Amino acid sequence: MAVFCKGCQEQFSSKNELFRHLNKTAKTCLPLDEYNAFIAHIRATKREKIAVLYGYLPGIDYQSLVVKDDAIGIEGGAHAAWLVTNAIDLVSRGDSSVKLEIYDSSIVSKINRSYGHSSNESLASEQDEHTGAITEVLSTTAVPLFVDDVVDDDDEASINNDDTTEDTILKRKLRTWIDSVNDQLDRMLSEMASDKSTSSVSTAVSNEWSPGRIRVFGRITITQKKFNAQTDVTNRRIDYCFPASLIFTTDRERFANNLPDVSSLQEYCDGFKLFPPGNKPVLARTDSGYIRPSDEMLTYLLTMKKVMRRIATQVEELTDAGSKLEKEFNQTSKRKKKKKKQRKRDNKGTTSRDDASSNKPSKVDKQPSDSKPTSSSKTRLLKRKRFHNFSPKRILAHNHLAYRRVDRIFHRASIRLQDEISTTTIKNRPFIVFSLTGDMFLHEQAVHIMGLLIAIFRGVIDEDIIDCMFDENFTSLVPAPPAPYFGLLQGEATYMTMEGKMQKILNARRCDKYNGFGNEDVVSSVEEWEVSLLQNVAKAWLRKGEAVDGTLNSETQWIDNVLMPWSKKTNELLKLWRASKTTDVTSFLPPLESVDPSVPQLYEKVLFYLREADKSGRWPSTTPGRQLVMLSTSKEGQQANLSMASLSLSLDRRYSAYSFKEGEGGASGSFSVGAMPGEQPKANLLFPELVKAAFELEVALCPDRPPSSTIAINRNAAFRPHTDSGAGAGQSTSLIVGLGHYNGGELVVEGEKKDIRYSPTEFDGWKQRHWTLPFGGERYSLVWFTPKGCEGMRGIDLEL
């Protein structure tokens, strides 16, 4: 479409050509105010999708003082992203006088950013609170950076049609845009500081209060319409900075004193890929030159590396059914995605070289030929591990989201901070930065991995605890200890697939192949920013001062209050786990003969009907969803693979996830009676006498408790750590009691053991994780509750 210059009436084939013409002749063709009005009109109706690289630090001097107040400053990743998008919008509109709206966390959580979690339903994937970031990427829209704007007299002579000159102008425009956004961010944080002066924050906190910091480093135009800053991430890195003395205990203090600074890290360990003694020497730089670390030092560091690898995900040769099913699940997902893309192309009626190639059978679709037998039945895959023990109260063992990929844990840097703080506490005190990389990190997963590593390195627990925590057949919850949260930083996210498609570098690394965030200005700014964040982390560690012997008080308090109590409790679980690998766990229970077989009169009727139902052969099978939180107590049967069961449901299998013999836990262990939302339980009609007697028992046990609508009836069922699905209605707690002649089988609620045999106990089954300890003998349990949707219903009033 042709366009005309209003000044000279010359015709141009595009607006870009018109802009180029006006850049050269603006003073003769148009008055400057008319030209600027014209540009503003064009820009107001045009925006482009951009990716922004930025970093942030929460308020209150990085987690050292967390105060709940409206004027606290930057609260974390979602809040920082909200501020950045607002600053970009203000710069695009050219108006800095607009007052910020009230921060709404429910809305900003949906901002498209690399460490966001908006596409995941579970809070288990939520970013850790008050976490800083070295770099993060978000995608939003902004006014394009027009190269052909009118420029001042000094620049006018340099403008011509040469591409190099246009690139130079664009870089200048980009630098101006970044500075403008950062100025807006500084203004916003300054407003927070002024608003805080009228808030109710205490004087002690006010003296050390800081709204936090945000810095934008770069911007690129997104050429792929479907780019998503969160879901297109191929790898994320999280960093943890802590004093070296946390892992180098007293007998290894000399190791900490000889750690190199960050400038010699690559020469020292090349990303922690150490050479064993006797091979290629590893050099560390000192004031007097280069030295080779002692064999003792290398041996210790190599041991640390092996421990890290035991936690990280590994590619394994696997032949068990669960692994094959996991492979099948991944292949099925790929086939579904490919078919979906093909249907979209067919609907559009497009034909291309890609369409032709898409009709070819993929490696996944190909079946082995009858004439060529398969060479092996083995399956090789990246075996994900179950990290529910590293994300407290957010995720459960049977949730498939718990199976995460941790690619690598490594020693990224050793640093000594000598900044404006020149006290002896800081000077020459070595700090270490460990990095964790993976696909997605669960809430608090990183700090719990670090807590476990520190515990092992300090020698307070054996490294076999790693196998214990990842053992699917060990039913007890074995939580890892959380390291202090103020050492945590989001590192960076990488987009390897999208970089190839867009031919742009999407994280801060030096690379001349493509444009993007790989130029020297961006990388240098990010490196300076990272050093400043690490200084803030060190200040948080040092805030509580040091003892006479030079140890940090914050370090000592964490060891005494968190690490040592955890190690005492967890070492007992480790003994139990080791015993379970060599013999039957029930052999450690008191002899069944020592348990009084008599039944209290109050329970006689219910136990009679339970045993009659057991003998009838009509005991209902357990639903697949409930089977995921159960395992068999049979000594003869093999326990089913949890990931296999979870994947069976994900693949929408119509058969039961587990397969057990009748009368054992799992397939025949649990069913519900009473009232339920929607279709009523069939067991109401199968065992009417049992249902009536069980509801009467609740009233007899707790006459002041509102009668429940529903009962879960369990027979010889051992439950994994879990919370009950759904929510309660009219009752804040569930009521449970055990019946029968058995030993062991205690209920554990958030680590607290409760003997429920003929001893009713109330607990919040919807919020508190609970599970069953090993038992022997005949064990029944009844759980009374009222689910959401059964408000006002009383099971005792049912007419059966």
Description of the molecule:
With 800 residues, this protein is α+β, with helices and mostly antiparallel strands. It is 35% helix and 17% strand. Strand 7 and strand 8 (289-291) form a beta hairpin. The longest helix is centred in the N-terminal third of the chain and has 34 residues, at 163-196.
Q: Please outline the major beta sheet.
A: 7 strands, mixed
Strand content: 15-25%
Distance from N terminus to C terminus (CA atoms, Å) equals: 79 Å
Structural class by SSE content: alpha+beta
- Tell me roughly what share of residues is in helical segments: 25-40%
Radius of gyration: 32 Å
- Spans where pLDDT lies below 50 across 5 or more residues: 62-69, 149-163, 199-207, 260-291, 351-377, 419-424, 633-666
What is the topology, as strand order, of the major beta sheet? 5-3-4-15-6-14-13
Which oligomerization state do the chains in this entry correspond to? Answer: single chain
- DSSP E strands, number: 29
The geometry reads as globular
- How many alpha or pi helices? 23
